[in-house]
Amino acid sequence: MIEKQAILDAFNFRHACKEFDASKQIPAEEFEFILEAARLSPSSFGFEPWHFIVVQDKALRESLKQHAWGAPLKLDTASHFVLCLAMKSPFLDPKGPYLPQFMREVQHHPQEVADMRLGFYTQFQQSDFDLSDERKLFDWAAKQCYLPLANMMTVAAMRGIDSCPIEGFKQKETDALLAEQFGVNLQEYGLAYMVAFGYRKHDPKAKTRRELPQLVTWK
Fold this sequence. Notes:
single chain; 219 residues; alpha+beta; NADH Oxidase
């Protein structure tokens, strides 16, 4: 088991890095390890409603700047820059072809188990969480996408690699750009967030957080 102090050290090391050392690149095997943490992340019903685009092409990074006000310095200096796409209804509609196929080929469920789980999911979508329109369904999928984000950033910190999650972008305009220049099908995916990885150029400020009694209630 990993020592508790080593885990806490990683959480204290991690910060939202605003500028990276552009001269330093994350080794390929280290970044594959970060992506593996994303791959192994949990999701509701295990449906993995995400896709990741690693943007290393300089021209494509430059194109993202026009609508991503929170990203320009990271796009210029990060070793690796990732876009996380959240799935939309063609993948998440219980009446569509994707989920039954996913349950068979990825989750390896027998047909009767897949049918049962699909019934549970249909009830969950229609009544429990009222995922009754495209926006609600996309927002639900995007929430799932934040689980691999947290895992990627934590694993990176445990390996001495910095990161910065980014929501500072115009969603509609950036989605249109992804369709035009990245080949993203907007009927199937929308951008949930961006995240940059690299090595810090400057030391961060001391971390500040509320104390546990201020944010935890025991009953």
